[in-house]
């Protein structure tokens, strides 16, 4: 009897003794059995690595390529509400049936090779993408880069969005070493897009060491500027004959990442068109990234670098009073996130997340109070936090952030139509 998708996902959690086990040896064995390494899975492949900005970069890559009439597949992680969110084919979530079929095919050849939940999911996505053979496949690195499961595929263009401290238990705290790990997605002879103005030196050095590679760096080889009407423009540096894309709609996502998208697609040889760019950038909505639902703003920012971006965006939207519903995992830099959000938050409502990695709401409250912040309540869960806000703080602007888990629980509640004023 065939398993349902829910049953398959429960099965995947039991296949390997640890949840995260970086390395390509196991997944490569099974990929070879599946024939995934025998030829390209798509006409072009773009792999996106980085500490922050991967999800928004993938979403914009997908939107721009589809607006130009190309077929796409985009693989991201983690998901917020449904596992199917991880793989989108031409913008639509993959079906349960496609995932189940892929899992069955993997299980048939896996034998005694243990694979993590993420490795099984990545193989399933690659199987489905290979079967569809889209014009462009967009792969988001799960963790790190060089040893991430997605890196069994050679990308035609690699994008590194940013490098900052996060996932220290797996990547360490040496920022230059982390840069080397993320730069491991780049391939010799193929373009590399470095999409940060503060990129650590090791990333550029790694790109430069690859024979015949071409690194395009934000602020040096391409750049963007905001226009007076709130739109933005993109140009290539040092080439007066190259097109300047003007009057582009603000997608509501980081424009450093938007600029990197255009640089990557030009590097692929794609011919961009102004109407298609306008269509793409005006219609992007990415769940959990500065997502606005009534008075709630939801963002999965869970490290200081991401929280700094959120604070900058919120500073452009002044409100009478803003409350932060904050829930974080125990291995994240809570002090740094709170410091980054401090200028745009008036009151705090820390919440407790569930699971072995969770951090208690009272622990977050202690950090906030030590800085002199106002903690209006502490809740046992994100849902309980929403309950409290709906009873006691019905007119305040609310920022929900700190973790994918925090945002996912609140988003599920709000999408049911509950907890909105």
UniProtKB/TrEMBL annotation:
The organism's place on the tree of life at top rank: Bacteria
Entry's EC annotation: 6.3.2.12, 6.3.2.17
Keywords, sorted A to Z: ATP-binding, Folate biosynthesis, Ligase, Magnesium, Metal-binding, Nucleotide-binding
Domain annotation Mur ligase central: ranges: 48-187
Metabolic or biological pathway: Cofactor biosynthesis; tetrahydrofolate biosynthesis; 7,8-dihydrofolate from 2-amino-4-hydroxy-6-hydroxymethyl-7,8-dihydropteridine diphosphate and 4-aminobenzoate: step 2/2; Cofactor biosynthesis; tetrahydrofolylpolyglutamate biosynthesis
Main EC class the enzyme belongs to: ligase
Pfam family, one: Mur_ligase_M
Catalytic function, reaction form: (6S)-5,6,7,8-tetrahydrofolyl-(gamma-L-Glu)(n) + L-glutamate + ATP = (6S)-5,6,7,8-tetrahydrofolyl-(gamma-L-Glu)(n+1) + ADP + phosphate + H(+); 10-formyltetrahydrofolyl-(gamma-L-Glu)(n) + L-glutamate + ATP = 10-formyltetrahydrofolyl-(gamma-L-Glu)(n+1) + ADP + phosphate + H(+); 7,8-dihydropteroate + L-glutamate + ATP = 7,8-dihydrofolate + ADP + phosphate + H(+); (6R)-5,10-methylenetetrahydrofolyl-(gamma-L-Glu)(n) + L-glutamate + ATP = (6R)-5,10-methylenetetrahydrofolyl-(gamma-L-Glu)(n+1) + ADP + phosphate + H(+)
Record InterPro entries: Folylpolyglutamate_synth, Folylpolyglutamate_synth_CS, Mur-like_cat_sf, Mur_ligase_C, Mur_ligase_C_dom_sf, Mur_ligase_cen
Mur ligase C-terminal domain location: 288-404
PROSITE patterns reported in the protein's UniProt record: FOLYLPOLYGLU_SYNT_2
Family recorded in the similarity comment: Belongs to the folylpolyglutamate synthase family.
Role summary: Functions in two distinct reactions of the de novo folate biosynthetic pathway. Catalyzes the addition of a glutamate residue to dihydropteroate (7,8-dihydropteroate or H2Pte) to form dihydrofolate (7,8-dihydrofolate monoglutamate or H2Pte-Glu). Also catalyzes successive additions of L-glutamate to tetrahydrofolate or 10-formyltetrahydrofolate or 5,10-methylenetetrahydrofolate, leading to folylpolyglutamate derivatives.
Protein name in the entry: Dihydrofolate synthase/folylpolyglutamate synthase
Species assigned in the record: Kushneria pakistanensis
Protein encoded by which gene: folC
């Amino acid at each position: 009897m065939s398993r349902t998708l829910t049953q398959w996902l429960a099965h995947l959690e039991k296949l390997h003794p640890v949840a995260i086990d970086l390395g390509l040896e196991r997944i490569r064995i099974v990929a070879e059995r599946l024939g995934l390494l025998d030829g390209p899975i798509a006409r072009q492949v773009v792999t996106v690595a980085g500490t922050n900005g991967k999800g928004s970069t993938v979403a914009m890559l997908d939107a721009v390529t589809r607006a130009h009439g190309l077929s796409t597949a985009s693989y991201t992680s983690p998901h917020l509400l449904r596992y199917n969110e991880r793989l989108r084919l031409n913008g639509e979530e993959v079906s349960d049936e496609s995932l189940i079929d892929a899992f069955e095919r993997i299980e048939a050849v896996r034998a005694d090779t243990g694979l993590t939940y993420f490795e099984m999911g990545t193989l399933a996505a690659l199987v489905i993408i290979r079967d569809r053979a889209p014009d462009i496949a967009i792969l988001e690195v799960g963790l790190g880069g060089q040893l991430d499961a997605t890196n069994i595929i050679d990308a035609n263009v690699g994008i590194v969005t940013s490098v900052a401290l996060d996932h220290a238990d797996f990547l360490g705290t040496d920022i230059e070493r982390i840069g080397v790990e993320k730069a491991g997605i780049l391939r010799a002879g193929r373009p590399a897009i470095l999409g940060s103005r503060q990129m650590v030196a090791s990333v550029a050095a790694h790109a430069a060491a690859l024979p015949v590679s071409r690194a395009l760096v934000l602020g040096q080889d391409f750049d963007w500027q905001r226009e007076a009407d709130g739109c933005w423009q993109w140009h290539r540096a040092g080439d007066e004959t190259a097109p300047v894309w003007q009057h582009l709609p603000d997608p509501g996502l980081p424009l450093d990442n938007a600029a990197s998208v255009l640089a990557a697609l030009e590097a692929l040889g794609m011919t961009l068109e102004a109407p298609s760019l306008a269509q793409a950038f005006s219609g992007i909505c990415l769940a959990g990234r500065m997502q606005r639902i009534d008075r709630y703003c939801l963002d999965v920012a869970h490290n200081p670098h991401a929280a700094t971006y959120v604070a900058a965006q919120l500073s452009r939207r002044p409100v009478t009073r803003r409350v932060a519903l904050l829930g974080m995992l125990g291995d994240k830099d809570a002090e740094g996130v709170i410091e980054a959000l401090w200028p745009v938050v008036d009151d705090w409502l820390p919440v407790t997340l569930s699971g072995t990695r969770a951090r208690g709401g009272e622990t977050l409250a202690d950090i906030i109070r030590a800085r002199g912040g106002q903690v209006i309540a502490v809740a046992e869960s994100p849902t309980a936090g929403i309950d409290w806000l709906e009873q006691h703080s019905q007119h305040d602007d609310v920022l929900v952030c700190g973790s994918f888990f925090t945002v996912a629980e609140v988003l599920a509640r709000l999408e049911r139509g509950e907890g909105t004023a």
